[in-house]
Amino acid sequence: MSYSEFTLSQLESEFNLILQERVQIFKNIQSVTPSPLLREILEENIPLALDIDTEKARSELIISPIMVELRKYFNRQISFFSGVDFSVDKSKGLTGRCDFIISYSPKQLEVTAPVVTLVEAKNDNIKSGIPQCIAEMVAAQIFNERQQNQISCIYGVVTTGSNWKFLRLVENLVDIEAGEHFIGDLEGLFGILLDMIKMTHLHFG
Questions:
Q1: Which CATH number is 111's domain given?
Q2: Over the stretch 63-78, which tens digit does the pLDDT of each residue have?
Q3: Closest by Cα among 105, 111, 136, 74 to 204
Q4: By Cβ atoms counted within 10 A, which residue in 15, 40, 87, 132 is the most buried?
Q5: Which residues of 123-143 are buried (b: 16+ CB within 10 A; e: fewer)?
């Protein structure tokens, strides 16, 4: 079994998770204007990615530039991993590759303290990516405990590149936010991503 094979009911029963839907995870978030370079890159990349219309194209052309910008904003004190193996517990089915991992550490050679897991939704469908994202968040929680990384809150993101949906795991409670965020509001989306990392730092620090 792997992350992509889990269903919501399996996650609830096997990990004693409580799922709360339609939760407002982020409140009073300040919009943040990204760099002119990112705007220029996305202006070129978004139409191309949507025309190609594959997960790989969306990942490379939309999501990756945003993650690089996020890392630059934090003066490269966070690390960014793409497509890495993150097999945490084979006996529990927590194995496989994560599309994206952000770790609150400047170390880029290995994953140390996962903060955010991003999963491109299959077939341009946000809903289909939620179980995989939650499974990876549970794995990140277990990984942190083993590494004695005291992060009490794990955030997850399911994204098609153009649509973004956020999740939060605290102990065994999974919050799934009500709506979605869109790449058209890049300032609002970037503000949420920054706040997510800052909040994780508060929990970690």
A1: 3.90.1570
A2: 999 999 999 999 998 8
A3: 105
A4: 132
A5: ebebeebbbbbbbbbbbbbeb
One-letter amino acid for residue 183 of the chain = I
Q: Which amino acid is at 156?
A: G
Q: Which residues are paired to 167 by β-bridges?
A: 156, 176
Structural domain tally of the chain? 1
Label residue 108 by pLDDT band (50, 70, 90): confident
Q: Is 4 left (phi over 0), alpha (psi -120 to 50) or beta?
A: alpha
| Three-class SS state of 74 | coil
- Angle at alpha carbon of residue 118, lines to 82 and 130, rounded to 5°: 140
By the 8 A CB rule, do 82 and 100 touch? yes
Give how far Cα 183 sits from Cα of 38, 40, 190, Å: 12, 14, 9
Residues 156, 136: contact at Cβ < 8 Å?
A: yes
**Domain span at residue 87?**
3-204
CA–CA separation, 205 and 138 (whole Å):
21
Q: Give the pLDDT of residue 148.
A: 76
End-to-end CA separation in angstroms for the chain: 34
Cα distances (Å, whole numbers) of residue 53 to 86, 127, 159, 185, 202 = 26, 18, 14, 20, 37
